[in-house]
Amino acid sequence: MANTARVFIDGEAGTTGLGIRERLRALPQVEVHSLPEASRKDPAARRDIMREVDLVVLCLPDEAALQSTAIADALGSSGPKLLDASTAHRVDPSWVYGFAEMVPGQAARIAASHRVANPGCYPTGGIALLRPLIEAGVLPADYPITVNAVSSYSGGGKAMVTAHEAGGGPAFELYGLGLEHKHLPELQVYSKLTRRPIFAPSIGHFRQGMLVSIPLHLDLLNGTPKSSDLHALLAAYYAGSRLVHVMPPTPDGKLEPEALNNTDVMELRVYGHDGHRQAVLVARLDNLGKGASGAAVQNLTLMLGLETADA
Prior knowledge:
seven-stranded mixed sheet, about 300 residues, 9 helices
């Protein structure tokens, strides 16, 4: 690879694409290549630019991401590496899941791969909370998990952003009540849950930020743990992580979603009442940071060898 890594963001005008491009301004080792607006949907123009670059980030709807993948695959050995921010490949076993902190060695797998699927924002929080407890054998894989989450309106795409910023939008809105949210498959697969979880997402009238919360009955867990034991397990699992921080519960029992805006950090907390044998796991992150563009740039730097796999 050349001293300067060449990157094409296919779909650079969307929220995630714009966030990635802005973050890449801080990386002099990366040269961003673009197409004129009139050529962005031209397959021949996209094929030609893919020949020129080392890596393509797909910030596209699923169907368009599949089309771009086919174009890249047709280039054979001269084709670029792909980082897909859509949901098209997230549970495809031939693609590496791009949550670098998910398990030991995941960052190295990302660094070695030519095909990486960037995680969804909601699953990033849910998997971060659940996977360590299942790996430790404390949380049964068939536990009837419910994941509640609230995200900012920027996670809903251009139409939702316009609705909230131009017309005000609702203060709070539950959605996905058909229980078929597109993030459910990756949430279940990478948490290693054998029972399909219930996922109840919602949107609040704020531009950035996210909370993902998971209630647990401690007496249904293995080993009769206390809430402090769950905190200790998470703290040990993510010890030394640059971006995933396990924090003590807030003293007032409150948590707002915007504190990590414009960062790529995710915070994990365990709130509990051992007398009632109940706990609530909570992840806080910027849905546009660790939940989207920040995670994409982290994966991109790993794939291009700009970040070490143990960072």
